Amino acid sequence: MKGSEAERCAETFLLRQRLRLLERNYRCRFGEIDLIMQDGEMLVFVEVRLRTSLIFGGAAASITSFKQAKLLRTARHYLAGLKMAPPCRFDAVLLSGQSGEEMEWIKNAFEE
After folding, report:
1. From CA 91, how far away is CA 112, in angstroms rounded?
2. Residue 55 CB coordination number (10 Å)
């Protein structure tokens, strides 16, 4: 499974959880956000991580403080383009196993 396949898998899963897709692969000079979704009134920035091995700590360990800072800057850039900023959260969808068969959805994976 490749990164783009993992993102599609996570997107499908979140759509089934009744989230609504707003943006896919939002990019700006600060970085990229895999999925931007809406959960009721909440704007959700989603980081999708795929790891086939636990050698380096697995998918969760790959969301370092540096990566979190990039996501925060990118989210601020996205929010600057809105008339009014809604409540927001950062979620992570972690896929593991050889074909991404194990999935974990972490709501509020980190905060500013």
Report:
1. 12
2. 7
- CA 54-5-82 angle, to 5 degrees, is 105
In what order do the strands lie in the sheet containing 20-28?
20-28, 31-39, 42-51, 88-96, 102-110
**What does the block give as tokens for 72?**
């925060």
For the chain, give every domain's residue range: 3-110
Give ∠ CA 25-26-31 in degrees, rounded to 5: 100
Q: What is the pTM of this model?
A: 0.88
**What are the pLDDT digits (tens) for 1-38?**
577 888 999 999 999 999 999 999 999 999 999 999 99
Say if CB 94 and CB 107 are below 8 A apart. Answer: no
The one-letter amino acid code at 35 reads L
Whether 88 contacts 42, CB under 8 Å: yes
Q: Which residue bears the tokens 């196993």?
A: 97
CATH number of the structural domain 3-110: 3.40.1350.10
